[in-house]
Amino acid sequence: MNAPGAQTADLELAATVAQVDSPQAWLMVAVSFVALFTVYGVAYSFGAFFKPMAREFGAGPSATSGIFSTTVFIWGVLGWPAGYIADRIGPRPVIIIGAIAILVGLITTSLIDRLWLGYLTYGFGVGLGIACGYVPTVAVVGGWFMRRRNTALGLAVAGIGCGTLFVAPIAAALIERYGWRTTFDIFGVVGAMILLGCAFVSERPPIHIAPVPLDFRAVFGDPIFRWLYASSILSSMGLFTPFVFLPAFARDHGATEVAAATLVGLIGGASVVGRLGLGAMADRLGVVRLYQLCYLIVGLSFLLWLTANSYPVLIVFALTLGVGYGGYVALSPAVLAHFYGAQRLGSLLGALYTSGGIGVLMGPPVAGFIIGHSGYRWAIAFSFATAMAAYFALLPLGARSRTSPG
C-alpha cells in the first residue's frame, strides 16, 4: 500500500502530465506563432528597405546588405544565451527584452544619418529581438508536447513564413506612402506591443528540470552536432541572399516595388506549406530524412533563379525555395530533440543557430560584392554552390544514432 505522501506525489505528477498536449499547450503554439510572425516579418521585410536606404546614403549593395547580415549574426550569437536563460527562468522575461529591443532598434534606425549606424541600431535591435522571440518560444512549445511535438513545432514556426508573406508587401506599400523612416517607426511600435502581449500569455512547460549548462567543447565535439552546424553555416551563406537581393533583382527586370517585395512574401508563404506539411510528415516518416530532403530542395531551387528571365519564373523560384526552407526550419528543433531529447532544447537551438550568424556574415556581403563587380548571375551561382554543399554535409547523419553532448 502506498504511503499518503507517495499517493499525493503520484496525483501531482498525473495532473502535471495531463497538461502536456493539452489546450493550454496549443495556446503556447499560438504564442510562438504570433511572436515569430512579428520578429521575422520585420527582419525579412528588409529587402523592401534595401534600395531606398542604399539610394539615400549612396551606398553599394555589399555595404547595405551588411545591415541585414549583422542582424542575422546578432540573433544567431545571442540565441544561445537567450535559450539558456529561458530554460532556467522561463520565456516571459526574455520575450519582454525582445520587445524593448525591437522598439528601440527600429525607432533609432529611423533617425540615423549615416549608413554604418544602421549596423548598430537595426542590427543589434532587431537581432536581439529575434533571439529573444524565436529560441525561447520554440523551446517552450517543444516542452509542452510529447505525442504531437513535431506537428506543434511545425505550426509554431509557420509564423515565420506567414510574417514574411504579409509584412514584406506591407512594408513596400508603407515605404511608398510614408518613406522608409516612418515605416520603421510604425514597425517598432506595433512589433513591441505584439511581443509584450506574447510575453504576458507565455508560460514555461509544466514538467521542467533545471538544465545543466551545456559544455561548449562537448557539444561541438559531437560528430552529429558538427555536421548539423557545418550544414547550417553553408546554407545560411546562400539562403539569405534572396531575402536581400531578390526584390532589387526583380525591380531591375521590370517589376514594380510592391511586386518585387511580394516575391519575398511568397518565400514566406510557401515556407508555411513546408513547415506544416513536412512537420506533420515527420511524425510518420522520420525527421532526419525529411530534413535532408528540404536542404536538397533549397539547393536545387537556386537553379531556377539562375535561369530566370521573367517574373513568373521568379515566382516559381520563390515558392520552391520557400517550401524547402520552411521545411528544414520546422524540422530543426525536432531533429535536435530526436538526437538529444527536449530537456535542453532552448540551449541546443541557440547553439545551433550561431551557425546562421556566421554564414550570413559571409553570404550576402560576398554576394553583394559579386553583384557590384560581375552582376547577379555569378552571385546566384555562389548561393547555389553553398546551398548544395549544405545538403551534402548532412548525408552522414543517416548512419548516426542518438547521443547526448554536454
Description:
This protein is an all-alpha fold. The protein has one domain: Growth Hormone, Chain: A (Up-down Bundle), CATH 1.20.1250.20. Helix content is 84%, strand content 0%. It is built from 15 helices and no strands. Helix 10 packs across helix 14. The longest helix has 30 residues. It is globular and about 55 Å long. It starts with a helix and ends in a 12-residue tail after the last helix. About 3% of the residues have low confidence.
- Give the CATH superfamily: MFS general substrate transporter like domains
Indicate the CATH class: Mainly Alpha
Strand segment count: 0
Task: Give the second-level CATH assignment, the architecture.
Answer: Up-down Bundle
Secondary-structure element string: HHHHHHHHHHHHHHH
Main sheet properties: none
